[in-house]
């Protein structure tokens, strides 16, 4: 390749290069224009699009407007009214002076504006970077920015655009994210390629903010959210965090703002995930809206031209504030079930006679009596750590009706299709999870409160309780251990043995006593008493896998939660285990006292609450 002489790029080329960073898609144009409108003090912003924003984007506001003599500067690079001599003192959404010239370099831009004190408006147009002289135009006060034929000057960029529907959806998402931070502003989006979206102004204050969030996230969010308000060393965090059971399959319902600016910062997302690490599944995402307020000098928003990334002077402080505030709020909120669970439950019901009944299979026919499992052992009861005395021997109570409940011949009843009906201790009805009424399908506890019906997954609930007990053992006295009469030898690869033995002292705090037994095995001499009789071989192998996958230079500290979760899964009451009334109520009371018990270690809900009003709706009473 021959050497080419160095030359100064033209202003149009410079603007097009800058546009490549600022204007990625039509939604980027909308973001920049809406931010300009907000900075101008607008209280009403209207967005009209066509062709997913590729053919037309028009943003109209009632802000302060731009004087006619400043219109040419508004579309020139590095000209702005929002920045003082201190580049670190940024208090507006825009400040770089690149948005309008970048847009004008790749489209046909028409900018109209009229300040309130002006007799008439003026307009200026930029076509592919070529600027025309300002000229008068009739209009009301405010500004209208109209962008047509986006990327006509750089047609190669059009090949990377998505469908009109996808681009229109991206525009809606951008506007919604901005609108949350400014509830006193009315937003509307309309156009030939979409249905009209109206976000009425809700006013300032926490009530107005929550109402605006409801407009964006739906009316069920306030019912499943917890208010956040915390401050540390001059950094304040406010907003709302969804309860763990109210989650989504992606992170699109997570909104973060720094001094009112919507950001998509990996550091903040990591803190949110860390705050919910114990209570939500790895493939699920919480719904949160967080606002960080701090001195502009403590955060750099000039990291990227799109201004979506930020850098904090003290990232550890911000992360600790987010994680600590969310965890504290979740812990203080008590036990709560997501209202969406009840709605899904209602939708799953079919009215009687709505469709022909299907013949039952012989196994599930309610008329086919099955023998009740009587392999009950006091030593194997999963509720020993939560009772002062071990449960008594097998008790009856597995019957389909109240009369059968009193009948001693319960062993003749079906085990997997009949319920264990329980007497109702009325004094427990006022408790959050009520009084246990029945166990159905040997896996679900049905309880009754004063105004609702609660269904509890006994395995998921007890798994959470054991998990929390194991974690508490790390910060208090070690868990009680039970000595094995004959040590159990577990054969493992040498590297797994080395990892387990290296962390043997910490495992002892869980009540698990191990030691090396030659180069390729470990001897298990003690197991946690609270786990009862467990499959020791499988537990040790699972623990070895967890340590191998998550171990770091920090030792076991980085993986203690994974180890505790693995042990909890092995020690929790299994599906299919019959529970007597006292055990069921003990489980409910323990759930009420344990933070985070609304979800299991894997993020699934441990119970669903159905209000009496919902039940009445099912029967057409409301």
Binned, the helix content reads 25-40%
Q: Main β-sheet, in a few words?
A: 9 strands, mixed
**How much is the average pLDDT?**
79
Tally of separate helices? 17
Description:
There is one protein chain. The protein is α+β, with helices and mostly antiparallel strands. Among the domains are: 11-85 and 92-199, Histidine kinase-like ATPase, C-terminal domain (Heat Shock Protein 90); 218-333, Ribosomal Protein S5, domain 2 (2-Layer Sandwich). It is 30% helix and 22% strand. The chain is built from 17 helices and 26 strands. The strands form six sheets. Strands 1, 2, 3, 4, 5, 6, 7, 8 and 9 form a nine-stranded mixed β-sheet that branches. It has a five-stranded mixed β-sheet with strand order 10-11-16-13-14. β10 (225-232) and β11 form a beta hairpin. α14 packs antiparallel against α15. The longest helix has 18 residues, at 164-181. It is elongated, with a radius of gyration of 31 Å. It starts with 10 loop residues before the first helix and ends with a helix. Mean pLDDT is 79; it is low at 351-418 and 553-557.
Summarize the structure.
30% of the residues lie in helices and 22% in strands.
